[in-house]
Amino acid sequence: MKDFFSWHFRRSFVSVIHLFVGVVYCLVSWAVGLPKRAPIDSNLLKLLIPVAVCHGLGHVTSNVSFAAVAVSFTHTIKALEPFFNAAASQFILGQSIPITLWLSLAPVVIGVSMASLTELSFNWTGFISAMISNISFTYRSIYSKKAMTDMDSTNVYAYISIIALFVCIPPALIFEGPQLLKHGFNDAIAKVGMTKFISDLFWVGMFYHLYNQLATNTLERVAPLTHAVGNVLKRVFVIGFSIIVFGNKISTQTGIGTAVAIAGVAAYSFIKAKMEEEKRVS
Fold first, then answer.
1. Is 263 helix (H, G, I), strand (E, B) or coil?
2. Sugar phosphate transporter domain location, by residue (predicted)?
3. Which of 128, 191, 197, 199 is most enclosed, with most CB atoms within 10 A?
């Protein structure tokens, strides 16, 4: 557990930089009127704070997991997110989840379990962090549903990013600040050079923000089934890309488990999306 917290605080500064880049992008976009900034009041702020806290925590723990284990394994664990969403919807929001949806999640749980048992890069830090990220993003979804407003998705995500940045700065400064000033910055710059150090932080932060903004915008504009297909294909692409590019070695059982988990996510997404479409039609 001590190792887990050590990893957590070592990665929080990187997460703050990512959020900071996204916030600068939002402020510049507002300054040029693309989009026009939507006003925010105290009531909306109270609704968005829990969303932003979950967003920040989910991002930090994702970075911890990416640093601790193979990227492909983190995304395999994060395939469990629909399971947490279903559980939270039924037991927290009181929504009835059909048995067909629960059955479609069984392959996800089984596949992730298979992959975890023989994953070559497995360690508890990476596993626990990915699970916390799942729970955080689940609660982010729940609070987002409660924060129903007429504000467009781009402005909503911009405010969430700003609040999340202010939430993440204090722990990063308290737990990592002294170490970064003493060793962290100098060690990183000595290893990769100042230019690459800054550019890598900038581009990862920019892509992270644009990805989340695009995902939010897409969900607002397309049918649930289309969005579900995109989510499944995204995870398949990321896992495959990480194995090919980073040379992540996986066992046969891990590969089978990952495939089973992704298939379960696909089945769950299709069933849920069709149910939502039927509700809209009726």
1. helix
2. 13-269
3. 128
Question: For residue 267, what are its two tokens?
Answer: 């089945």
| DSSP reduced 3-state for 200 | helix
Contact call for residues 103 and 55 (beta carbons, < 8 A): no
Angle between helices 153-179 and 42-68 (to 10 degrees): 50
Residue 179 belongs to domain spanning: 11-281
Contact assessment for residue 55 and residue 183, using Cβ atoms and an 8 Å cutoff: no
Instruction: Please work out, in degrees rounded to the nearest 5, the angle formed at the alpha carbon of residue 56 by the alpha carbons of 186 and 192.
Output: 20
Closest CA to 28 of 37, 15, 39: 37
Closest CA to 74 of 244, 252, 200, 243: 243
Burial class (CB in 10 A: 0-12, 13-18, 19+), 259: middle
pLDDT digits (tens, 9 = 90+) for 140-183: 877 766 665 668 888 988 999 999 999 999 888 887 766 665 66
Nearest-angstrom CA–CA distance, 174 and 179:
10
In a domain, 5, yes or no: no
DSSP label at residue 98: P
On whether residue 1 sits in a domain, the answer given is: no
Number of domain units in the chain = 1
Q: Please report whether residue 229 resides in a domain.
A: yes
Other beta carbons within 10 angstroms of residue 81's beta carbon come to 21
